[in-house]
Amino acid sequence: VIRSLLIANRGEIAVRIIRTCREMGVWTVVAYSEADRGSLPVRMADQAVCVGPAPARDSYLNARNLVTAAVLSRCDAIHPGVGFLAENASFARQVHEAGLVFVGPDPEVIELLGDKIGARRSAAELGLPLIPGSDGPVAAGPESLAMAENIGYPVIVKAAAGGGGKGMRIVRSPADLDEVLKIASHEAERAFADGTLYLERYLENPRHVEVQIVADRRGGIVHLGERDCTVQQNHQKLVEESPSPVVTPELRARMGEDAVKLMRGLGYAGAGTVEFLVKDGRHYFMEVNARVQVEHPVSEMVTGVDIIRQQLVAAGGEPLEVSQAGVRLDGWAMECRINARSAGRVTEFFAPGGFGVRLDTFLHAGCTIPPHYDHLVAKLIVAGKDRAEAIARMSRALDELTIGGIATNLELQRRIIAHPAFRKGAYGTGFIADAFKEGAA
Amino acid sequence: MELKELYQLMDRFEKSGLWELAWRRDKETIRLRKAPVAATSAAPASVATAGLAPSIAVSAPAPAASRTGQGNEIITAPLVGTFYRAPTPDAAPFVEKGDRVKKGQTLCILEAMKLMNEFQAEYDLEIVAVLAENAAMVEFGTPLFEVRKL
Q: Distance (Å, rounded) from C-alpha B33 to C-alpha B68?
């Protein structure tokens, strides 16, 4: 059982974790950088430890300081949150070596899933449907040309060490393949210190649908339905909802079974997400995110299951508090990510409220958004009995939300929710690029 | 802040359930921190670090080395760790208040991940005050010594 937890993260996810800990009676220690000294999580946590200066590599990525802080403040476990060290196998290993619990899967599993080629192989072995693609790494040359011909154009070049949309390039003709492979390999080498690439058929304008999994360390594993994260800009998710407007009960059952089969086969523990692309009523395995995700609240809102709580329960060696038979998807939930477009001081802040509205944020009037970190500042989540009600509620809540002093994407979010294609639910991952061609609102 | 107010704050803080209290107005920063209950492992030099004695450091919001009102420098912790003033529990401290220290001389040890990191003076200096408690946890930026450059 986890009684005290070091949170190796910042911003809204740190606040999110503290809230659940408070409800569970878990003592919280938040690690923070000098730039976050006065931040909300630092004020909310039972204890706070400064682990370094503003640049993330010296603070939120400083494994030694984070682990030492956890040991010296007598924590049982470290929660890595999202981003930073959440999918870093070597960090998870250091946490274990210090005698602490890492809230997440085992280092070996993180390692395997971090290699997208390895993840594809595991998925194939376990019988999941894959997007046609290369079995292993590819490099410029005649072999890759033959392979691409076999897969069929357009193809997408991906970095084995990539993920989250980084380092991907689309190739529409064999004439471009060699050139793109060379550039992409160089890019991947620089971004991930690993230039290994692989190929997949590029599906035009698919839906991005992912399945939420929670697993304990006693063989218990359940899926909490799907999330549709098709509304993206530059591969960055902007709006997420559950259920997906394109997933039928039959497809949901198949995707859920596949996701559970994969994660059970991998010996996965904790919260994780299996990402699929859905096209013409079929699903294709894409990758696994070996952590809790930013958009987890939409699944919480339709299932009533606190995912962070299940993470902590599982990490403490206890059985999950929910069984597959007990998971019900009720109504419709939707999330808009509110991103800052400038750093600085928030002069005015008003949080929307009322029936079915949830705001996960670290904002308050007078707080400062440092320029060093991710631009996500708030997640506005609503729940309704159906999609139409969720949209009406989101539209109303977006109108109420007021953030002054910094620039945000609030206006773009209002336009997305108001857009006829969004309201109809008929769009693919190209939606933002097509519907808002004139650029960001 | 008047000394009287400071003493009141210290008393109130000691009674409170808080571990740490930071207070800032204009250029004045006060941080009160209760030392964690002494570690059971080899706690060197039995200085009176007993229980929850609040340790107090008054300084500007300090990066690596900052200036005090008297033109002194504050040396702060460059990493998270346990602060030791002496190489072993029964040895004499590396430095004491009033000591004159040559560049390169060891000031303290910060233990992190079972590694003893020795920290040396970066210039000739005189120790004006030792600001951190022996065997206490220090975080990044915690003031360790007030020193005067020589």
A: 20
